[in-house]
Amino acid sequence: MSWFPRAKVVVPIDFSDASFDAVEVGLSLVKDSSDLHIVSVTPDVVSGDPGFAWNALEKSTRRDQILTAIKDRLGDSIPRAVEIHTLFGDAGREIARFAKDNGVELIVMPSHGRSGIKRLLIGSVAERVLRLAPCPVLVLRKRND
After folding, report:
1. Per residue, what are the HEC states of the chain?
2. Are 67 and 82 in contact (CB under 8 A)?
């Protein structure tokens, strides 16, 4: 049974186990698998990055590699109707923008639970999405057994 009949649900993934677990939660919340959208956001390459110097990181090439990696990781565990999107830029902003532009009703994402200096240096994508999203955000926390 779906909690959100005919509602669009987005699950951002960062290739962590927790983000792929969130895909399963997202699937359980939609009535039709075509309403689930998986989003991967990759930072833009800037001129100081090594890949830029080698000219090996064109967006289309990166997009293809990311899509292949996601499909390989998911295997046959998700229906074909699930849409996978690759975006470039700041993860928090791009996830929120995607939700707004596509009429998304719910974002399902994990929190990695960073604290202290790691959180200060890395930031919290989940926290940024919570601030910027135009819809509810379900943040999944890892259980400490």
Report:
1. CCCECCCCEEEEECCCHHHHHHHHHHHHHECCHHHEEEEEEECCCCCCCHHHHCCCCCHHHHHHHHHHHHHHHHCCCCCCCCEEEEEECCHHHHHHHHHHHCCCCEEEEEECCCCHHHHHHHCCHHHHHHHHCCCCEEEEECCCC
2. no
**CB crowding 23-59: b at 16 or more within 10 Å, else e:** beebbebbeeeebbbbbbbbeebeeeeeeeeeeebee
Cβ 107 vs Cβ 133: under 8 Å: yes
**Mean pLDDT of each 10-residue bin along the chain, 145 residues long:** 69 91 92 93 72 61 89 87 93 96 94 58 75 93 64
Q: What is the pLDDT at residue 78?
A: 83
Domains and CATH numbers, the chain: 9-141 (3.40.50.620)
Query: What is the per-residue pLDDT for 122?
Result: 45
pTM confidence score: 0.81
